[in-house]
Q: What sequence folds into this?
């Protein structure tokens, strides 16, 4: 079975692929060769049918009673995500978050190489953060064009994000990973992925509130002394 | 209509609520009072029906031809997420990512207050990062218990994440926001939200590959000179 060329797979499944990769790599490092969807499901606390559906988007299916051959599955996921090739990226904004992203070594494993960083603040220009020199923002479009950089990472405050996106588009950047908390206007053919740390916090907040409700309800029925 | 007490709403909808909040707050700052679901949908590039369904989980419905009263909608979202109250949290691991999270002022707006940070590295203990002192990791359980801290943020490498989670659970922490790239084993009643920056990158990588395919296919059919 080959992956369907005209589908990108459901986005929630794509979002989960890195989690499968982490797990499969840790199996691989411990010398394991085969794994069943049931075992993956247990480890990740999801349903086995979900595992099989998610992994099928890479074109790989497990064999009944045998499961997946781990090296082939890792390879299929990396190929599907394009992470076996390196994509060059520019990062804009080297404040707290931008610096953390520059220092995050995991991105190389995911095929992302940040080749230059930019900032509008002159006091930051010239700094070297994790191998990369910080350049003045006005050089971005020109350099992106000359270096054929396909991806841009935006880590500036909301109010500057659109002008940074415009400069990226002008430089021919085709994919923008946006950490600023606002949506961007870009022309057709440029893809944007909005990353909002508050999204995960929202889910956790709601889960916590729900747990507390259950606990309080249950608590009224518990015998005294159980709380010590 | 009141929110249904026994539902937490669909998780994708909950994930999108912060995005609505950002937008509504920016409307509110510019003096606007009413907004239609169509206008919100245009700004966020999603379908109006999706907007109405997402916002309905907060218990608020827009009025036909009038839309939503913005202050009430902001209030409903914040109440639904529990962000009108502050939740105290401990953060563990003050490397690149942990430091960035400590320095991120947006969390206060989202009702999250990091009250202490911890690290296993003695050279980091005693540092002050964004108002918070870094304490030795062995003090975590005891302090969490005494201060009744409900939430923990894990920003340590994968190999240390489970032991940090164990210490949090021992200290009575009920909700864990996990930035380490591995899943955690926790007892029933403790909720975990895994945050993997690679997930967003996976989606963006797949979208970029898809765009390039379309561009290459279209490119073969374009008249010469269109690329200048």
A:
């Amino acid at each position: 079975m080959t992956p369907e060329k005209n589908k990108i797979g459901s986005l929630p499944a794509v979002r989960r692929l890195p989690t499968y990769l982490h797990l499969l790599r840790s199996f691989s490092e411990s010398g394991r060769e085969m794994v069943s969807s049931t075992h993956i499901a247990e480890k990740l606390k999801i349903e086995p049918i979900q595992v099989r559906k998610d992994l099928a988007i890479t074109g790989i299916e497990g064999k009944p009673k045998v499961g997946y051959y781990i090296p082939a599955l890792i390879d299929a996921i990396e190929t599907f995500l394009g992470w076996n090739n390196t994509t060059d990226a520019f990062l804009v904004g080297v404040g707290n978050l931008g610096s953390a992203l520059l220092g995050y070594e995991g991105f190389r494993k995911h095929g992302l190489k940040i080749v230059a960083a930019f900032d509008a603040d002159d006091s930051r220009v010239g700094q070297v953060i994790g191998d990369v020199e910080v350049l003045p923002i006005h050089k971005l479009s020109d350099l992106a064009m000359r270096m054929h950089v396909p991806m841009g990472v935006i880590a500036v405050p909301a109010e500057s994000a659109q002008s940074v996106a415009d400069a990226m588009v002008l430089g021919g950047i085709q994919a923008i990973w946006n950490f600023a908390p606002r949506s961007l206007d870009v022309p057709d053919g440029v893809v944007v992925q909005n990353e909002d740390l508050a999204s995960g916090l929202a889910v956790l907040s709601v889960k916590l509130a729900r747990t507390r409700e259950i606990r309080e309800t249950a608590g009224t029925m518990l015998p005294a002394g159980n709380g010590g």
Observations:
- The longest strand of chain B covers residues 112-119.
- Residues 11-81 of chain B form a domain with the Arc Repressor Mutant, subunit A fold (CATH 1.10.10.10).
